Hints:
The chain is mainly α. The chain has helices at residues 2-10, 25-45, 57-81, and strands at 13-16, 84-87. It has a two-stranded antiparallel sheet with strand order 1-2. Helix 2 runs antiparallel to helix 3 (57-81). The two termini are 27 Å apart.
Amino acid sequence: MxxxxxxxxxxxxxxxxxxxxxxTTELYVYVAAVLAVVITAFxxxxxxxxxxxxxxxxxxxxxxxxxxxxxxxxxGLAKSGSRDFYDEHGN
Length: 91
């Protein structure tokens, strides 16, 4: 009986709710999209034509907010139905 208990302990599989965010492509796509918005706002916002700023800081912040909400929804959906399995030794 003790032998069975040792085997069950050794073969036990553990899991986290999902992968860490740094191990997914969602984080990298999110960071790239935010950088694209910031760069676009900077480049378009430096127009010296005097016609106003068609894509300024307020627009950039709005789009970054939309991206952040989308990223959080994507992470929430990913966490809702997946598991990342590992054993007690971290494998």
